[in-house]
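User: For my dataset I need records formatted as: sequence, then structure tokens, nothing else. Please produce one.
Assistant:
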Amino acid sequence: MRFVIVTGMSGAGKSTSLKMLEDLGYFCVDNLPVPLIGKFAALALEPNSELSKIAVGIDVRTGLKKVEDALKELKEAGYSCEILFLDCETDVLIKRFKETRRAHPLVGNGRVEDGIEKERELLKYLKKNASYIIDSSHLLTRELKTELDNIFSKNKDYGNIFITVLSFGYKYGIPSDADLVFDVRFLPNPYYIDELKLKSGEDKEVQDYVMGFPEAGTFLSKCLDLITFLIPNYVLEGKNQLVIGIGCTGGKHRSVTLADRIFEKLSENKEYGIRVEHRDIYKDSLRR
């Protein structure tokens, strides 16, 4: 039996997550008033109940002032409860509200940013006590689905952090959201090899050329050693989104090759979500 409370920031993907959990076989109820959570759990989790997986959506509209009491009531009644918290960066939330032309539930026609800050304050307790935190700021819908599937269907351990390995070109600027930035311009540039110039780090010939230098392997080893040391410490500090930038001059050859290698190695650890993105890989060809 699993009883999951789905909550988080408005616009971060709570409703979408509930639909995905429904597809995974969960009986889902959205916007259930907080004072009714205990009563609903008692009915749904009766010994003769046919329900084995339940997800309840709550947010700022459902009476969060009593959420601490409701969770204590569940615990005292002997019910095991998991909390899934959907988080998102403020600037991304503002953009989403503008695109959908929806008002924030806490401010009506007021400033969306004010509503977001009020909501963060109201949700502090739930986030602090969350079993899983997913930051949807840079997640595609399919990536969110994969994360939920890993947690609630495949029952994998989850480290409350999602990692993006991002290749980029310095001539297009360092990514503003990068937490760690590694410069691989010290490696010989395939751009100056005629047969490799128009290819990218996704092509085997370029990969073989870049990784053919001993310095590339040494860098990869030392970089992974640092990253694997940092990840659990970031998790302990409450960080749930990590962007690792790998940069070269144009973001097409060396950075792509190393970003893919780092992604492959980090993907071996199933305790956190991970994706790779190549921001500038096609920009040179588009300019031409």
